[in-house]
Structure formats: C-alpha cells, structure tokens
C-alpha cells in the first residue's frame, strides 16, 4: 500500500497535489511519502513479532544504499531504525540523520583501512566481514587504535535467489561473503586475531526476491552453521538475515510474499537459535513510498507506437536501463483514455528507454506522469550524464512538504571543473 491516490481526478501524495509540487519545484522530481514509510516500518515490525529475537527485539537496519537522503534517514531514525551501510559516506549520512552508531552495521566487500578506523572511532555496532584478508586488516586497524571490532562473517550459502543476475549475491560465483564450506575454519582464525570479537553470522542472498524458498534455504544453512560454531566454542549472539524481500512493481504480476509471511517463515526456521535477529530492509520500506514525477515534452509519431518523450531520463532513473526494470507509469490527471506507447527520455542513448509498447494512460505534451515504486534505487543512482542537473527530492508529511534536496543549477556543475594553468592563461 502507498499514499499516492487520485482525488478529484488528480493524483495526490497524502494531502498534497502533485501538480502543485510540479509547479513549485519543477520536474523531474522525486517525491516521498512519510506516511507510507512509517506504515511499511510498522507492517515489517508486526511481521517480525512472530520470531524470537531476544529482549531487545529485532535489530532492523535500513539499507542506506536504497535511499540515502538525510530527511528519509531522519524519518528512519525517529522510528527507531538502525542503518546498514557499505561505505564511510553512508555511515556519515546515517550519523548526520540521527541514527546512533551502535545501531549501524558496516557491510560491503571493499572496506578500506581508513573506513574501518572511522567506523571504529564512531563505535559502529557490527562489522559484517566478507573475507579473511578483510578480517586481518580490521584486526590490524583495531589493534593500532586499541579498540575491539565486533564482527560477523557474511556467509555465501551458494543459494540462487531467483532474482535478476545483477542483484543476486548469494551464489558461489558472486563476490560477496566467504564460502559456507570454509566458514568454521575462517571463524577459528578470526577468533585468534587481536582486536576482533566474533559475535555473529550474516547472510544476504539478493534483492527483489519474490519467493521465500531461497531465503528459507539460506537461513537453514545459517542455523546449521551457528550450531557448529557454538560447538567449536564461539559465542554467537547475533544473526543478520539481510534483506531482499521484493515489492510489487508490476500490478499484473502476483504480489510478493508479505512481511507477515516472511516473519512466519523466519520464526519457524530460527526457533531455538537464541540470538538477536538482524534485518537489512531497504526497498521494502521505501520502494512504494516514492515516485518520480515527470513532464511530457512531446509525443512523437512512431512506426508502430508513438514515442512519449519525457523530461526525466536514464540519468534520473537508471533501473530500467540497468536492469530492464519495470515501473508502472501513470498519468497524474488521467483523462480515461488509454494507448500503447514507447516511453523514453531526452538523453542521447538508445538505452534511455523506460518502456516499449506499454499500455498506459493516454498523455499529450505538458501532461504530468508518475513513475510508481521509485523510492528505492532511484535518486541515489542518479548522475549528471549529458550535463543534466541532479534530480531534486521532496518529502511530504500530511499536508506539509519540503524540498529535501534542491536541484543544483548547472553552473554549479560547470564550476566544479578547474582548468590547469596552461589553459587558464588562454581563458
């Protein structure tokens, strides 16, 4: 469910009219709904209540990569969420938004020594370590600082998530984690390292999962490993089950499993683990909470279908070009007529295509359209390709709204370039 709905024939976000936002901010622009974010957090928490997770309850760490806007993260902080980060920059964003350091999990395969030192200094709650060389580097950094890093190894369970190849992370030929079969030996070596306190196990097999079976298979392997590690003398107090539960992009497809279904599966598989369960939702919380609002530049005749050319482009929303991802495209003020069209942007690439032969609301020049389910992996993946300004972002809360990232003038982009002395003299 989301809070984008037609009122009087015009799409609103909560109590704010989208044409009002478009007139005030311009397009393209990302628009986020606070009510939808909070509802998704509540629904997830309710689903996870079924699982045993210790006296403190589950540790829910929002995947910052999905949407790192500080206002969005501050909304998460006020709701009591932690953060899953994969860079020092994401960690600093989470801290700036008010998320306590001890609720931050630092993941990612390429943590540098400098990032490790910064995270240790701030006191992050856990490092999800992805290789033995990384553990050795973290040990050296922690020892130099006179600190102890709380660590979980990310396990690669060799489970096919059944999702797009570019967002699958749990197969043996993916770059993430350590092999399941070598985990016990890796934990033994990690426990012997100074400055390291092994405390947990982590797994994450991919994103936009629409079937619980791969997740269940991965979690069962984690449960078996916890038993082996405890038998070997390790104290395991956390189990990070990652994220990845899918959201409904295409209304014609079956709905993904609900958080309630997911929670029931987690409760069944993890019963008796006696750990604090950790989760890293991203898309599940913000996906349906955001849209990309765009204006039709013109409609051009095509050989088979008309071309709807928008002012939004692949640099604003990369997912369709990168993943062949599907987004529902709706007229903000639908007239009731439909047609079949190709929807594209103005960037000088054939890949700047959002939809081909798409049945959709009929639109004409000047109309507004909304890309639905664009709150995750949208603005965060935007670029300035073709010297286009970064897309602004707006957060709505009831009848109130605010620009939470302004559209920078193109002069700012140009000014970031500097000329070397031999060209400066000729300018």
From TrEMBL:
Q: Which SUPFAM superfamilies match?
A: Alanine racemase C-terminal domain-like (SSF50621), PLP-binding barrel (SSF51419)
> PROSITE patterns in the record, alphabetically?
ODR_DC_2_1
**CDD domains in the record:** PLPDE_III_DapDC
- The entry's active site is 348 (proton donor)
Enzyme group, top EC level?
A: lyase
The processes (GO biological process) annotated in the record are: lysine biosynthetic process via diaminopimelate
What are the residue boundaries of the Orn/DAP/Arg decarboxylase 2 N-terminal domain, all occurrences included? 60-286
Residues that, per the record, bind substrate = 283, 319, 323, 349, 377
Which UniProt keywords are present, listed alphabetically? Amino-acid biosynthesis, Decarboxylase, Lyase, Lysine biosynthesis, Pyridoxal phosphate
Recorded hits in InterPro entries, A to Z, give: Ala_racemase/Decarboxylase_C, DAP_deCOOHase_LysA, De-COase2_C, De-COase2_N, De-COase2_pyr-phos_BS, Orn/DAP/Arg_de-COase, PLP-binding_barrel
Task: Name the cofactor(s).
Answer: pyridoxal 5'-phosphate
Subunit info here reads:
Homodimer.
Similarity-based family? Belongs to the Orn/Lys/Arg decarboxylase class-II family. LysA subfamily.
Task: Report the function annotation for this chain.
Answer: Specifically catalyzes the decarboxylation of meso-diaminopimelate (meso-DAP) to L-lysine.
For this entry, the protein name equals Diaminopimelate decarboxylase
Q: Which organism is it from?
A: Sphingomonas prati
